[in-house]
Amino acid sequence: MSATIIDGKAIADRIQAEIAEDAARFQAQYGYPPGLGAVLAGDNPASAQYVRMKRRACEKVGFHSVAHVMTASSTQDEVEAAVSALNADPHIHGILVQLPLPPQINEERVLRAVSLDKDVDGFHPINIGMLGMKGREALFTPATPTGCMVLLKEAGVNLEGANAVVIGRSNIVGLPVALMLMKANATVTVCHSRTRDLPAIVRQADVVIAAIGRPEYVKADWLKPGATVIDVGTNRVDDPSDERGYKFVGDVEFEPALGIAGAITKVPGGVGPMTITMLLHNTLKAARRIAAAG
Ligand code: GUN
């Protein structure tokens, strides 16, 4: 039997259409649209591309957006000044600091400078702390992990008591998604580059979140038959048969996994579109909170 494909693109399109309707209602009520401010420092082409895609998505749903773009040699003060300007801007409700920042910048100080009311990426240490603690709730949760959780819900996965294995422990995906799975009452194992016998651990998993950033690292025969697989990886690999000369593949061997998994996301068209959608969702929520507080 072939696995069900969890169609992140279709789910993202549907949620974005709802956000566009809500944004129009917000604009009609307050006379201005929800606004997102991005801070981009450095010359990482992938980061620049992500910021472009996020701003394009804002335009599509009727949000205002601005970007503070700084060079790879920008200083701590310059980056923090960009955050402060966005904190003070009444037409900006959400702030996104694209990561990674250049090595001379202290990331923690920058993320701490983001107003809690505008922390739509959920990376402020207070929001991450609330996400981790029992009985507390973060005001905003990070976009990619939230997208993974929405995909699991859409796929009808019951997380209660399920064995969930997260591969990768990054601050952006692995760690927060593990915290969210724990809050959803899954039994969570976090694996990483030094985990011993990863295949044996993955074989126990009802749910696999692959976020290690290595092309097709997770082999199909590691999967438990019927497992749900969320593939967060977007790895660029050479492909002479493609007119661009490259293609994107996930962290999981996709084709052979189709014969073993119960449900799986595609790359591209899985988690990626959900990340942007969750950022838009958080920005709308921030705009509503700020506008309601007057
Ligand atoms: N870099 C890679 N993923 C992300 C993300 O979701 N948000 C931000 N701000 N930076 C990233």
**Integer-rounded radius of gyration:** 19 Å
> What is the topology, as strand order, of the major beta sheet?
1-11-8-7-5-6
Ligand roster: guanine
Count of extended strands: 11
**Could you give the order of the helices and strands?**
EHEHEHEHHHEHEHEEEEHEH
Count of individual domains? 2
Mean pLDDT: 98
Percent range of helical residues: 40-55%
The CATH topology of the largest domain: Rossmann fold
The rough form would be described as globular
**Strand content bin:** 15-25%
Profile the largest sheet: 6 strands, parallel
Query: Structural class, from secondary structure content?
Result: alpha/beta
Second rung of CATH, namely the architecture of the largest domain: 3-Layer(aba) Sandwich
CATH class of the largest domain: Alpha Beta
Number of helices: 10
Please mark out the parts with pLDDT under 50 across 5 or more consecutive residues, or reply none: none
Rounded to the nearest angstrom, the distance between the terminal CA atoms is: 55 Å
CATH superfamily of the largest domain: NAD(P)-binding Rossmann-like Domain
Describe this structure in words.
A six-stranded parallel β-sheet has the order 1-11-8-7-5-6. Strands 3-2-4 form a three-stranded parallel β-sheet, with helices on both faces. It has 294 residues and is an alpha/beta fold. The mean pLDDT is 98. It is globular, with a radius of gyration of 19 Å. It folds into two domains: 31-116, Leucine Dehydrogenase, chain A, domain 1 (Rossmann fold, 3-Layer(aba) Sandwich), CATH 3.40.50.10860; 143-272, Rossmann fold, CATH 3.40.50. The chain is 41% helix and 17% strand. Guanine (GUN) binds at residues 96-99, 121, 143-144, 172, 275.
